[in-house]
Amino acid sequence: MTLISRCITLAVALAASAGAAQAQTQEAPPSAMLGKFLDDYGNPYEITREEWRQGPKAIYHIIKWNAREQYIVAHNAPENSSNPNRFSRIDLVRFQDQGEWTWGYCYTAYKAETPEAAEATAAADRGNPKKGCKGFPFSRMKSAM
Questions:
Q1: How far apart are CA 88 and CA 17, in angstroms?
Q2: Mean pLDDT, residues 129-141
Q3: I need a surface site. Which of 13, 46, 98, 102 has the fewest CB within 10 A?
Q4: From CA 39, how far away is CA 42, in angstroms rounded?
Q5: 119 in any annotated domain
Q6: Domain count along the chain
Q7: Mean pLDDT score of the chain, rounded to an integer?
Q8: In terms of residue numbers, what domain contains 37?
Q9: Is residue 9 situated within a structural domain?
Q10: Are 123 and 91 in contact (CB under 8 A)?
Q11: How many CB atoms within 10 Å of residue 117?
């Protein structure tokens, strides 16, 4: 076996084991937070179990859904113009009595060096949706369907 083929075999094995490790950390995401959405600035989103897409260019590969504590840990795609190949923590909140705006999010961490560092970031203040995202409001989301 040549050195190149050994490297390829090792790379494939590492990728497969990383994918298996990521799949093991997944909780079932809340179904109300999957689909196509618009934020209160009119920006489009498409959110699946595996991916958070914000507009046409910002992609976050979801590593972990923590439905109980209401956050996502994600890998910023290498092609993102902002903080590529870093890690994000996205805190989620459900809204009551806000009409079509059923939930919101906050990028609590967006340039962490590791998924563990992103996850360890202090949670946003869900009890204060107008200023609980580091002094700013949570971005509100409504269905785009």
A1: 21
A2: 96
A3: 13
A4: 5
A5: yes
A6: 1
A7: 86
A8: 29-143
A9: no
A10: yes
A11: 15
Under a CB-based contact definition with an 8 Å cutoff, are residues 92 and 33 in contact? yes
pLDDT for the residue 28: 87
Measured CA to CA, the distance from residue 27 to residue 65 in angstroms comes to: 5
Would you say 80 and 57 are in contact if contact means Cβ atoms under 8 Å apart?
yes
Tokens of 98: 């806000």
CA distance 78 to 69: 27
Give the whole-angstrom CA distance, residue 5 versus residue 11: 10
CB-based contacts of 140, cutoff 8 Å, min separation 6: 39, 40, 95, 98, 101, 103, 104
In Å, how far are 21, 29, 48, 99 from 81, measured between CA atoms? 27, 27, 21, 33
- The one-letter amino acid code at 34 reads L
Distance CA(69)–CA(72), nearest Å, equals 9
130 within domain boundaries = yes
